Amino acid sequence: MQPVQTEKAVNVKPQTVNLKTMEKKRVLIIDDDVRNIFALTATLKAKGYECRSCQSAPEALDLLSADAVVDAVLIDMMMPDMDGYEAIPRIKNIPGRSNMPIIAVTAQAMVGDREKCLRAGATDYIAKPIDVDRLLALLSRI
């Protein structure tokens, strides 16, 4: 018995690997309520994200100004001292942060809130209680 030979050559294309998608995405969570930070951190870490957190906008501005490696920001819009509406433009004004994805998180799901957050400079908006699937979909775009 002789081996069967085929005339067709198998053309195998090497797969390109996108190293950015292999890296863990780094998310900065800015919220004055530690319970929200804890819940978001646990959820995102379980999905492969690295998380850092700040309990105030001024603390976050200091961290982001110090050249911390962050791929995206989740910011609570209603915080004492400095709310998200004031903090987002300040984040965008930090050198190297003008295109940083910022997701506004708010407990107020009122008509016009999304537009107000986007006008402040947020990339997107999500209401509390947070729909985890929607949040993951938003973060998957970074």
TrEMBL record:
Signal sequence bounds: none
GO term, biological process aspect, one: phosphorelay signal transduction system
PANTHER family (UniProt xref): HYBRID SIGNAL TRANSDUCTION HISTIDINE KINASE J (PTHR45339)
InterPro entries xref list: CheY-like_superfamily, Sig_transdc_resp-reg_receiver
This protein's UniProt keywords: Phosphoprotein, Two-component regulatory system
Residues where 4-aspartylphosphate is found: 76
Superkingdom field: Bacteria
Name this polypeptide is given: Response regulator receiver protein
Domain Response regulatory residue range list: 26-142
A Pfam family recorded for this sequence: Response_reg
Organism: Fibrisoma limi BUZ 3
